[in-house]
UniProtKB/TrEMBL annotation:
<protein>
    <submittedName>
        <fullName>TetR/AcrR family transcriptional regulator</fullName>
    </submittedName>
</protein>
<dbReference type="InterPro" id="IPR009057">
    <property type="entry name" value="Homeodomain-like_sf"/>
</dbReference>
<feature type="DNA-binding region" description="H-T-H motif">
    <location>
        <begin position="32"/>
        <end position="51"/>
    </location>
</feature>
<keyword id="KW-0238">DNA-binding</keyword>
<dbReference type="InterPro" id="IPR001647">
    <property type="entry name" value="HTH_TetR"/>
</dbReference>
<dbReference type="InterPro" id="IPR036271">
    <property type="entry name" value="Tet_transcr_reg_TetR-rel_C_sf"/>
</dbReference>
<feature type="domain" description="HTH tetR-type">
    <location>
        <begin position="9"/>
        <end position="69"/>
    </location>
</feature>
Length: 196
């Protein structure tokens, strides 16, 4: 009597993880059903059991990217809650450079689906003592200026445009000092000591 080995079952989570790895190393548009099956060492059948098509699988991957991003945002890299937002963004770009380039630099249609809710970021900003006295609109203005700076810094980092000695710690200190400058200017503007 010959024993037939049991069929390997692939969970939805395993399929998403394989597709995420493709997105992380090659970009979102490189996710195909066949490529995910090859990555898992399976036929395409288990994927179609769990997802109706590649677009549905990509949506699941986008949710995973959003979860990874949110988890990084919730990690305390620094005691300063506002600086922590910038550090999380820098770290995402450094740890997932292909994905970062794909989502940010390639004018990706996916970026809005993976960004954390702005309400969550505003709540985090409200915990930062240096932002006391600012209303939500003013905080949003500060955040936007810092996002412009942080994105530029991340792009320079992942494309190799920063000086070789410019390590992560130096990037964080630059982010911190720029944040302090933006906040100081916003406070002066709020007090009428600086024109718009």
């Amino acid at each position: 009597m010959t024993l037939i080995p049991p069929k390997v079952k692939f969970s939805k989570e395993a399929i998403i993880a394989a597709a995420f790895e493709i997105a992380r190393t090659e970009g979102m548009d490189h996710i195909t059903i066949r490529k995910v099956a090859e990555k898992m060492g399976s036929s395409i059948a288990p994927i179609y059991v769990n997802f109706k098509d590649v677009d549905e699988l990509k949506q699941a991957v986008l949710l995973k990217i959003r979860d990874v991003s949110r988890q990084m945002l919730m990690t305390q890299y620094d005691p300063d809650p506002f600086l922590n937002i910038g550090i999380a963004s820098l770290k995402f770009a450094r740890e997932h450079p292909v994905l970062f380039k794909d989502l940010i630099m390639n004018n990706s249609r996916y970026i809005k689906e993976v960004q954390p809710p702005i309400g969550h970021i505003l709540e985090q900003m409200k915990q930062a003592p240096e932002l006391d006295g600012f209303n939500d609109e003013e905080r949003m203005g500060i955040l936007f200026k810092m996002q412009v700076f942080q994105l530029g810094l991340s792009v320079m980092d992942v494309t190799g445009m920063l000086p070789e000695h410019f390590n992560e710690e130096r990037m964080i200190r630059l982010l911190e000092s720029t944040g302090n400058d933006v906040i100081a200017a916003a406070r002066l503007r709020k007090n009428g000591d600086l024109t718009k």
